[in-house]
Amino acid sequence: MNIFRLAADLLHLGSIFILIARLRQTKSCAGISLKTQALYVLVFATRYLDLFLSFVSVYNTLMKIFFLASSAYIVYLMVTPLKPTYDKALDTLRVEYLIVGAAAFALLFPHKYTVLEVLWSFSIYLEAVAIMPQLLQMTRTGEADNITSHYVFALGGYRALYIINWIYRYYTEDKYSDYVAWVAGVVQTVLYGDFFYIYFTRILKGKTFKLPV
Fold first, then answer.
1. In this structure, what are the phi and psi dihedrals at residue 143, rounded to the nearest 5 degrees?
2. What is the Cα–Cα distance from 111 to 45, expressed in whole angstroms?
3. Which of 52, 81, 151, 206 lies deepest, with the highest CB count within 10 Å?
């Protein structure tokens, strides 16, 4: 554990707390992609299958439980009490292509050829593109409320900090490498590029968040 990894984890936790607070306070999931949230459930479900098979630390175990439970809770909110506020017409990305693509990469380029490692690799590749339905929905509407913007920024920021964490570990730890996570992490961060630019040039200046339509 290093300061960059810890900061990334805290930012990831913060993104989820921001989203849950936004859903509960506004009693609306307008502007939130259900498909992205469902993909995150799949990401964590396939990544943390080792939850009851191996123990790393209390911190690691609690984080796994939190991400599994919180992602499922968000989907529950969106499909049950807040379902009337969800606009399916705006959430149109064909996520089956993302899932099939991630599965293909996991089979071709896994961390290791074991069931758990292939599924872990699948979760890494899928997480890299899981934000795409949310970004597409924001692009289609041309705008987003500030709380949703903070949520998406925190998600992107967490992954960017992980890249710094990997660089730090590469130079401070012997024989450290994780090409699956590195490639997927860079792709994931690049996807946030336009969003980051508009976030820094508008939201942080007190303006309304608007994306090109």
1. -160, 170
2. 17
3. 151
